[in-house]
Amino acid sequence: MADAARQLHTQQTHYFRKRVNFNDSGIAGGVPLGTIPAGALIVSQTVDVPTAFNAGTTNALNVGTTATGTEVFTDAATAGRRQPTIAALRFANDTVLYASYASSGTAASAGIADIIIGYVPNNDK
């Protein structure tokens, strides 16, 4: 279950950061990262992979508005730090974002990623 959307009363960038592993319970079906508040804009996203995901054929780290979705971005889960292209930027309602790992071929035996999503809530009312 994701936490309620975080929104400070001052104008500043908010974020959530979550570490995911290839063998986390539920990662194939999606794990909640956090909740983006209604009206917020995603302004930054970073995937830092200190240990590459190493399934035999496919290694996709996805972030979406559905449990296994790619509505926000998908990443190759190779070692390094990247800022994947964002597909969804503005949210009309409080929206839970999920991370999932999709793999194929030989089962993975390694993989760690830190996902950081920066957003700006609509608090200029």
How does CATH name the architecture?
A: Sandwich
The total count of strands amounts to 8
- CATH top level label: Mainly Beta
> Main sheet: which strands, in order across?
1-8-3-6
Helix content: under 10%
Structural class: mainly beta
Q: Percent of residues in beta strands?
A: over 45%
Largest sheet: 4 strands, antiparallel
| Radius of gyration based on Cα positions | 15 Å
- Overall morphology: elongated
Q: Overview of this structure, please?
A:
It is a single chain. This protein is 0% helix and 46% strand. By secondary structure, it is mostly beta strands. The protein has a single domain (14-120), classed as Jelly Rolls, CATH 2.60.120.
Summarize it.
The protein has 125 residues and is mainly β. It is 0% helix and 46% strand.
Record keyword descriptors for this entry.
Jelly Rolls, 8 strands, mainly beta, 125 residues, elongated, 46% strand, four-stranded antiparallel sheet
Describe the secondary-structure layout.
Elements: E1 14-21, E2 31-36, E3 41-51, E4 58-64, E5 73-75, E6 80-82, E7 95-104, E8 112-120
Antiparallel strand pairs: 1-8, 2-7, 3-6, 3-8, 4-5, 4-7
